[in-house]
Write a structure and sequence with these properties.
alpha+beta; Naphthalene 1,2-dioxygenase Alpha Subunit, Chain A, domain 1; 9-stranded antiparallel β-sheet; 5 helices; dioxygenase activity; Cholesterol_7-desaturase; dioxygenase; oxidoreductase
Length: 280
Amino acid sequence: MKIESVVLDQWYPVATENMPVAGKVYHTRLLGQPIEYGLDDNATFYAIGRDTRRPLPVLRQYYTYWVSLGTPPAMFEIPEFHETDRRVLATVPVCVRASGLRVMENFLDIAHFPFVHEGTLGEMPYTAVKPYHVEIENNGLYVRGAAFHQPMAAFSHEGHMTISYVYRVCSPFSALLYKTCPLQPAKKDLVCIFVQPCDEDRSIVHMPMACLDDSASTQALRRFQQGIIGQDLAILNNQVPRKLPLFPDFEISTAADAASLAYRQWLSEQGVVYGTFQKS
């Protein structure tokens, strides 16, 4: 199938820096195409199309190895990865039986916190989503002013706290979350979601983080975030349809879905078709 340039000409993650072993060849899929990647004997990252044997554009940035099947633009900026007081780590990549766009939409949805992440990111009866703002800036989507009552917003903090959220959608399959750091309330932790669309209805989620927690072990921080992802899997793997509907009359939305609706509208305006559910 022909893939629109707004999707083809993007950088996509295939691994985080803690995963590949030098000298080993890895096989995966990207936008329906089989590819190989790995680190050569000099620890230099490479990727090739498995059918064409054509070398692909590659990049190592933000604790992530990136590949493109097209002509990618300059990588978006994330200055927090260069701040020396942050801990950089990543969860184990997670396979999802859904469009990468579905994964992205779930990431932007705070309304599900008390129902899916009870005891950590939310709890009953605190289910109300306060109004927030969604804006388009510099070809990206920003969600500001969101806040939620959370009993355990981070591994090293137990105790109820209102956590503020700022989302930045950098590309159709990549987004950043800035959330209040309980240990340093004046600053924000950063959680990234970089989605690898293997096929239109199957994806792999890569989640590097730049945290301000200097007390917990890397293993404990990773395990906490991995548990959050695991709770989302039951929802994502059972969504119908697996692709993301962009037409507004397919599902019923509320004011709490403002970020999702804006994301879908932004995708439509960008001309994204790959991974979307189309009317027959």
